[in-house]
């Protein structure tokens, strides 16, 4: 579960970078 949370955070960070 923690690992999944980390992956989600990484994915969100990538999305934010792309959006920016």
Automatic annotation (TrEMBL):
Domain of life the protein comes from: Eukaryota
Protein name: Uncharacterized protein
Protein's organism: Arundo donax (Giant reed)
Biological classification of the source: Eukaryota, Viridiplantae, Streptophyta, Embryophyta, Tracheophyta
